[in-house]
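Reminder to self: tokens first, then the designed residues, so the page reads top to bottom the way the pipeline ran.
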């Protein structure tokens, strides 16, 4: 009687894939994005959830870091892991349980050489301002002013003067760890001041930003709106390329990371050879 050959176990491809994730969060109760020695961070919360799901340490890489108190609608990050199921199941797994002020809104597979930071072609932020005292349920998400008017026309004039590709080091801040050699030339593609009733929204799009650049652009525009400097001073200040206290840094609570831009071709996963 011929011996039957034992069936060979099927080969399973456990090669990790790269996942691009979009996350919204309320930054009020966090010390910022990046993991720190003390305090709760967005990165720490997300890596903890992912590591529990995959039962192995997971490291995530963000499109950029946000400071404590800054919010997000469109922050993106990527990580590598093996997940043989649809992305919707992974999104549900991450979001299940305590929300902790953050929510995954999108997940997709991308190519192995995609990188959230270096593949980005630009970013959009918005800053929310309320003329007068905001309602309690909005106070965490906007800058409330103690007065009822700003010269929006002058602010718009100042904003237009700053557009274009320039050295914005004057609108940066003292460097944080890891950002000491950051290139100061950025392409400011959009700086728009909108008003609807008591709400003023400042929208900015650029190729990239220096540390605290958005909040200092807002701080300069507020000085113009308050009548404390002419619009032309914003341009002169940029050209001086020196950081001074003349331009204040607007509080973090009004700032939202709105969107990260990518080339659609870079978002398509490619089959491994």
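Designed residues (273 positions):
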């Amino acid at each position: 009687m011929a011996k039957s050959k034992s069936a060979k176990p099927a080969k399973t491809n456990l090669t990790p894939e790269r996942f691009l994730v979009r996350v919204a969060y309320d930054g009020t109760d966090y010390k910022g994005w990046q993991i720190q020695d003390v305090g709760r961070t967005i990165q720490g919360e997300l890596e903890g959830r992912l590591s529990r799901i995959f039962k192995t340490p997971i490291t995530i890489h963000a499109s950029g870091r946000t400071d404590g108190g800054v919010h997000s609608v469109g922050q993106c990050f990527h990580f590598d892991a093996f997940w043989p199921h649809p992305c919707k199941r992974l999104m549900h797994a991450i979001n299940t349980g305590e929300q902790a002020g953050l929510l995954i809104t999108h997940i997709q597979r991308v190519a192995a050489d995609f990188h959230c930071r270096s593949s980005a072609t630009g970013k959009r932020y918005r800053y929310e301002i309320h003329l007068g005292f905001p309602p309690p349920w909005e106070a965490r998400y906007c800058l409330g002013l103690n007065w009822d008017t700003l010269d929006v026309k002058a602010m718009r004039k100042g904003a237009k003067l700053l557009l274009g590709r320039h050295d914005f080091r004057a609108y940066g801040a003292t460097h944080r760890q890891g950002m000491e050699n950051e290139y100061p030339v950025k392409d400011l593609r959009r700086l728009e001041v909108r008003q609807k009733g008591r709400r003023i929204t400042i929208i900015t799009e650029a190729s990239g930003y220096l540390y605290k650049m958005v909040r200092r652009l807002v701080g300069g525009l507020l000085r113009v709106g308050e009548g404390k400097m002419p619009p032309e001073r914003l341009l002169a200040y940029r050209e001086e390329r020196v950081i001074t206290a003349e331009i204040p840094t607007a509080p973090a609570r009004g700032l939202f990371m709105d969107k990260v831009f990518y080339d659609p071709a870079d978002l398509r996963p490619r089959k491994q050879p």
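The chain has two domains: 17-118, 124-259.
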